[in-house]
Amino acid sequence: MKNYMKYFGMRVFYMLLTLFLIASITFFLMKLLPGTPYTNQEKLSAEQILIMNEQYGLNDPVPVQYLSYIGGLFVGDLGTSFQFDNTPVSQLLSTRVGPSLQIGFQAVVLGTFFGIVLGVISAMKQNTWIDTLSTLTAILGRSIPNFVFAVLLQLLFAVQLGWLPIALWDGGFKSSILPTLALAIAPLADSARFIRTEMVDVLGSDYVELARAKGLSRWGVAFKHGVRNALIPLITLLGPMAVALMTGSLVVENIYAIPGIGEQFVKSITTNDYPTIMGVTILYSAMLVFIILVVDILYGIIDPRIRVSSEGGN
Amino acid sequence: MSNILEVKDLNITFDTYAGKVQAIRGVSFDLKKGETLAIVGESGSGKSVTTRSIMQLLSLNANIEEGQILFNGQDLVQTSEKDMQKIRGKKIAMIFQDPMTSLNPTMTIGKQIAEPLRLHQKLNKDKAHDRALELLELVGLPDAEKRMKQYPHQFSGGQRQRVVIAIALACNPDILIADEPTTALDVTIQAQILELMKELQEKINTSIIFITHDLGVVANVADRVAVMYAGKFVEVGSVDEVFYNPQHPYTWGLLASMPTLETSNSLYAIPGTPPDLLDPPKGDAFAPRNEFAMKIDTELEPPMFKVSETHYAATWLLHEDAPAIDPPAEIKARQKLYKEKYAALHSKGGNL
Lengths: 314, 352
Fold this sequence. Notes:
Chain A: It comes from Marinilactibacillus psychrotolerans. Chain A: Its main location: membrane. Chain A: InterPro entries: BPD_transp_1_N (IPR045621), MetI-like (IPR000515), MetI-like_sf (IPR035906). Chain A: Keywords: Cell membrane, Membrane, Transmembrane, Transmembrane helix, Transport. The complex is a heterodimer of chains A (314) and B (352). Chain A is 73% helix and 0% strand. With 314 residues, chain A is an all-alpha fold. The longest helix of chain A is centred in the middle third of the chain and has 36 residues. Chain B contains eleven helices and twelve strands. In chain B, helix 3 crosses helix 4, helix 3 packs parallel to helix 6 and helix 6 packs parallel to helix 7. The two termini of chain B are 17 Å apart. Chains A and B meet through helix 8 and helix 9 of A and helix 2, helix 3 and helix 6 of B.
């Protein structure tokens, strides 16, 4: 247990170091962006710009700006947005990140769950029409962009059937159903293909044959011995997939009028809203490194060979 | 002794892209209660396919074209998958070749041993655990209580094979099929595992079908030996008969290619390669590699000739019209030993 805590502590330290490096690199890259933070520059007098630059600290040399920004980071200050009504970036993010997180999370859970089910069935019914059908589904799901699905879903469930709102976000579950479905298609297709391949491998392994020789049925073996082993490599795929979905999808968020973070990020870049760019980048990276840590912990839970134990193995 | 298993005229083919492979071509044998039958032969001779067919665990592209597998009178070929699940692991169990890969890496050893107990004997969790613990001790793993909670990667190859044996013996099966159980282990561990199997066989009085290509192992464990070549049994007999009075030229080749303490010059190798079973040769499949082959060997398949009550061999050399030939020196020496032993035993009035 002591070893484990030490290992965990090291991991957290490296996580923070990674975040610090990402923040630094992004800061300098961002300074290379062309243009200024002022959208209606022609309407502002030179004097006004000078005052504003002074106010935002943009007249200081870049290293000084960098130090003052990093200094703010350490006390949890992400700065103030130039654009969105001078709101503090932290407040901006916290109101916007919720919907993206919720829809992304729902999409990952739904997509991978049904992807796994489809993949397992596909592997068990190898080379039958069921397998072909699920392969086809997966390829279509992977190759058609999610905004096409988004629009089709709107057409079917909102316009034709009238069951769900077309594009409305009220924070309720009902308004999250369609965007979740649209976003879930890609992870569903990915994990179905992946699990099928893994499962076919696992089903051909010696321990599956031994389990069959014990008297288990084919499906019994698939569930008790197969799935868990087939899941191990999927976890690797799952991390980045989850981050990509939870950090918001600009197009799908736009189609469903969701006040998510994707939209904000793009807007902040086009307007040189430095504090917001930094804020969103740090948030994305923090989520990514956090999920990588979660994935590593998950590995340990699912695969005993990777488990960090104080007893040690041989 | 009564027969617990009778295999009659078994024919198995595999569908492949190149065509139908005739893997098993008319195999018949029986297994008596409590005996150990070894099936020897080179890779691809059909040893494993024969045993997989008894378990009814053949791959999907395999077809049993003909034949019966009678287990206590019940034809396993005609038995439904559902009923087979009640036989596998309970009445007929199996030990596999590679202990490194035959255990589930993500399940504790205790659970894997308890699985057949819970499935067949409907034991509850605690009882299955207690019985699994007993089994682990039975197969000679110390510190069993702690070992139950561990995973396969925490065991060595020999220890894992002990676990596999514990799983196979969990329900006291009538037949234990051991498919090269010692091939993947080093020699000292091999000896331990063979010893363990013999010991346990006496304890639970199970019949064993022992597949191997290691004749040294056969001499150690078997009561009877069947020599397999190109999907057929070419010689069947007691260990003494097959080792010391072999009749089939293929058996001669196998025995001559095994080093003994007397081997001084280079080791014998059977020339040529096994036939292509996509299109098996007419006549005796071994004929092209057989220096004693006669004309009839390329035309007509030899039937099983009876050598003694327990000893049969499929070679035209045993036909009454066959010319007398001179077997290799190595084999003659064995046959001489056999005659001396046989005579000695008879003068004492004992049985072979």
